[in-house]
């Protein structure tokens, strides 16, 4: 029987298609998570009120912050999940190499981040319409909520950047946990430990490095760079890892 | 037709079965013999085992190979098989029968009678 | 053409188990049966050949290259055992379709016909199949993919007797139509000894015997008779194992390379052939004596 010659590019394409089918459940969970977040958001995320003898004024702020935070959380969990044994081993039930598995995971994460970003942006419209339908008060749209195309573009990039970092971090954490279960304990300690000893240095750094960046171009470079470093480091580790051991 | 529990190797059983087919003129001189793949399919065995059975017959001059066409029955195949079976198989069986008759004190004439009786029984069966 | 070549291949786990010294060559378009006791490294060996595991010593080459991280090996080989994994988001039908995209020789018609014949449900994930159905389904994948190298690790686990027979029959028929290299590991050599061409016996992580199965069947003879005569006769023979001494009678298993004259000299001894599966048991015996000896102490002591 003559040997089949296959190209790396074609196998990566086939793996990405396969993973999209296999991931269907995870993507469905994104919709559920965002719907829950939208309900929270539509209830209003901040309020203040004032009144005197004549008037009573209630101000309720609506934003997609909750949707965004839920999505970040979902993305970290999801990208950690695709590094788990069962997802990794499934690749090898078809044609693959470790490199091809990593590459197709990367493309899959990129697709997921893109989809999640679009959903998050769209959720602001859903919240907006919910308020229009159910709320009797006056509505004053803020910056970048239901904004001009330019504003939507800016928020798209920003959300995309943050989600990219979240996906990279989730992927890297997931792989660390694959090396040793100890990381399940170590990672939260590193991330949240400083909170308990009131040392805010790394959060300060993160805030300044990403959030206070005023140039969108520089922000995107930082976000993409961070994601690439995390993804690359994870891939280097996985490339040496055996599958179906014992 | 093959007996997996027999102490005889499968490929020898194959060779013997093919010999019997030739004796019964299922295959005449210069006719094409089953291929190893046909035999493998028919007897549910590995084709290499079937090929081994064919090789035994080729080595004995019962089959000959035509390159690219397969195995064919030789001119003298049937005679040769008959000759060998008489000289080897039948003689060994007769020797066993005589030895057993000796053990049991069966007289020579009784033994011959038994053989004749069996022969006429078989004739009755086939006619 | 050589498909698999192992030269003193070693794949050790931290606890010391695994493959210690596998040394053999598998030629193209042969069916090889891999046999051995439990925990002797068969699965480790097969997974190393499939490129799942990384060798720790020696050499392994499949289609001329190291299988670990080789796309060429992955595209042209398939390893299947009962733990083969598929996403439960996919139905068995989906899995068949995805295989069609990955494997160029995939025969979708054959896969569907076999699945129908074996009554495999097509609208559920593999977790909903029984153990036997699951292994049957994996067997179908292995047959329909027609990979130049297909590795079945204990393929008939959990299958009914009739399904086993049908599966091996299907394997033989498809092999006759599309010859390729197939490895089958099994605890039940009796089930596959007519299907396979070669036999590879693994014991203690080592390849101890690799011969055409028809030669294995003639490899040894069982010789029994009065103890004294058995002992005298077998002194000049290569004894594989001394089976039993009971009531003045002994049985030994000797290598079948004595002359006709030597056999004729042993008039009072009984010679019986040793089946391939019995030979494998004898060759891989670790304990002296048999199961009876476990009980003899407690009964007499």
UniProtKB/TrEMBL annotation, chain A:
<feature type="transmembrane region" description="Helical">
    <location>
        <begin position="152"/>
        <end position="175"/>
    </location>
</feature>
<protein>
    <submittedName>
        <fullName>Uncharacterized protein</fullName>
    </submittedName>
</protein>
<feature type="transmembrane region" description="Helical">
    <location>
        <begin position="182"/>
        <end position="203"/>
    </location>
</feature>
<keyword id="KW-0472">Membrane</keyword>
<feature type="transmembrane region" description="Helical">
    <location>
        <begin position="215"/>
        <end position="238"/>
    </location>
</feature>
<keyword id="KW-0812">Transmembrane</keyword>
<feature type="transmembrane region" description="Helical">
    <location>
        <begin position="26"/>
        <end position="47"/>
    </location>
</feature>
<feature type="transmembrane region" description="Helical">
    <location>
        <begin position="67"/>
        <end position="87"/>
    </location>
</feature>
<feature type="transmembrane region" description="Helical">
    <location>
        <begin position="107"/>
        <end position="132"/>
    </location>
</feature>
<keyword id="KW-1133">Transmembrane helix</keyword>
Automatic annotation (TrEMBL), chain C:
<dbReference type="InterPro" id="IPR003439">
    <property type="entry name" value="ABC_transporter-like_ATP-bd"/>
</dbReference>
<dbReference type="GO" id="GO:0016887">
    <property type="term" value="F:ATP hydrolysis activity"/>
</dbReference>
<dbReference type="InterPro" id="IPR003593">
    <property type="entry name" value="AAA+_ATPase"/>
</dbReference>
<dbReference type="InterPro" id="IPR027417">
    <property type="entry name" value="P-loop_NTPase"/>
</dbReference>
<dbReference type="Pfam" id="PF00005">
    <property type="entry name" value="ABC_tran"/>
</dbReference>
<keyword id="KW-0067">ATP-binding</keyword>
<keyword id="KW-0547">Nucleotide-binding</keyword>
<dbReference type="GO" id="GO:0005524">
    <property type="term" value="F:ATP binding"/>
</dbReference>
<feature type="domain" description="ABC transporter">
    <location>
        <begin position="4"/>
        <end position="229"/>
    </location>
</feature>
<protein>
    <submittedName>
        <fullName>ABC transporter ATP-binding protein</fullName>
    </submittedName>
</protein>
């Amino acid at each position: 029987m003559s040997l089949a010659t296959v190209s790396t590019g074609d196998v990566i394409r086939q793996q990405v298609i396969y993973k999209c089918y296999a991931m269907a459940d995870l993507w469905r969970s994104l919709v559920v998570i965002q719907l829950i977040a939208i309900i929270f958001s539509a209830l209003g995320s901040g309020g203040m009120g004032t009144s005197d003898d004549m008037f009573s004024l209630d101000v309720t702020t609506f934003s997609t912050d909750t949707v965004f935070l839920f999505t970040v959380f979902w993305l970290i969990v999801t990208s950690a999940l695709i590094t788990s044994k069962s997802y990794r081993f499934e690749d090898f039930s078809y044609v693959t190499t470790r490199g091809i598995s990593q590459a197709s995971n990367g493309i899959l994460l990129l697709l997921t981040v893109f989809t999640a970003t679009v959903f998050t942006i769209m959720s602001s419209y859903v919240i907006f319409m919910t308020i229009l339908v159910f709320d009797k008060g006056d509505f004053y749209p803020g910056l970048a909520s239901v904004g001009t195309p330019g504003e939507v573009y800016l928020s798209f990039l920003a959300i995309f950047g943050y989600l990219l970092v979240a996906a990279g971090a989730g992927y890297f954490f997931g792989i660390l946990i694959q090396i040793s279960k100890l990381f399940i304990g170590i990672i939260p300690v590193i991330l949240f430990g400083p909170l308990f000893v009131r040392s805010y240095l790394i959060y300060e750094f993160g805030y300044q490095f990403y959030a206070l960046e005023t140039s969108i171009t520089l922000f995107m470079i930082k976000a993409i760079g961070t994601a690439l470093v995390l993804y690359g480091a994870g891939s280097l580790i996985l490339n040496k890892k055996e599958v179906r051991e014992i | 037709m093959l007996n997996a529990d027999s102490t005889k190797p499968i490929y020898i059983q194959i060779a013997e079965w093919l010999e019997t087919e030739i004796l019964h003129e299922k295959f005449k001189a210069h006719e094409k013999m089953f291929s190893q793949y046909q035999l493998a399919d028919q007897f549910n065995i590995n084709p290499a085992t079937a090929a081994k059975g064919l090789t035994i017959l080729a080595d004995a001059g019962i089959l000959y190979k035509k390159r690219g066409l397969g195995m064919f029955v030789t001119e003298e195949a049937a005679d040769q098989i008959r000759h060998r079976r008489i000289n080897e198989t039948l003689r060994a069986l007769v020797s066993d029968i005589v030895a057993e008759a000796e053990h049991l004190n069966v007289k020579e004439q009784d033994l011959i009678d038994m053989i004749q009786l069996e022969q006429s029984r078989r004739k009755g069966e086939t006619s | 053409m050589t498909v698999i070549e192992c030269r003193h291949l070693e794949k050790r786990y931290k606890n010391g188990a695994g493959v210690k010294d596998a040394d053999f060559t598998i030629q193209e378009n042969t069916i090889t049966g891999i046999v051995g006791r439990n925990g002797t490294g068969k699965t480790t060996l097969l997974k190393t050949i499939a490129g799942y595991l990384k060798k720790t010593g020696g050499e392994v080459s499949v289609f001329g290259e190291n299988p670990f991280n080789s796309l060429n090996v992955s595209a042209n080989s398939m390893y299947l055992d009962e733990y083969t994994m598929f996403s439960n988001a996919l139905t068995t039908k989906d899995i068949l379709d995805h295989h069609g995209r990955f494997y160029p020789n995939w025969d979708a018609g054959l896969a569907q016909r076999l699945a129908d014949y074996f009554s495999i449900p097509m609208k559920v994930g593999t977790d909903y199949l029984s153990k036997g159905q699951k292994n049957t389904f994996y067997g179908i994948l292995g047959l329909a993919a027609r990979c130049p190298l297909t590795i079945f690790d204990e393929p008939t686990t959990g299958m009914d007797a009739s399904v086993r027979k049908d599966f091996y029959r299907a394997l033989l028929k498809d092999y006759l139509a599309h010859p390729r290299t197939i490895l089958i590991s099994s605890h039940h050599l009796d089930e596959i000894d007519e299907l396979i061409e070669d036999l590879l016996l693994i014991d203690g992580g080592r390849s101890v015997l690799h011969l055409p199965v028809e030669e294995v069947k003639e490899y040894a003879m069982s010789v029994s008779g009065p103890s004294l005569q058995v002992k005298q006769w077998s002194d000049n023979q290569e004894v594989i194992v001394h089976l039993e001494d009971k009531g003045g009678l002994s049985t030994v298993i000797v290598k079948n390379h004595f002359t006709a004259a030597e056999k004729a000299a042993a008039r009072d001894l009984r010679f019986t052939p040793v089946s391939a599966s019995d030979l494998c048991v004898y060759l891989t015996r670790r304990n002296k004596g048999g199961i009876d000896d476990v009980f003899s102490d407690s009964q007499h002591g």
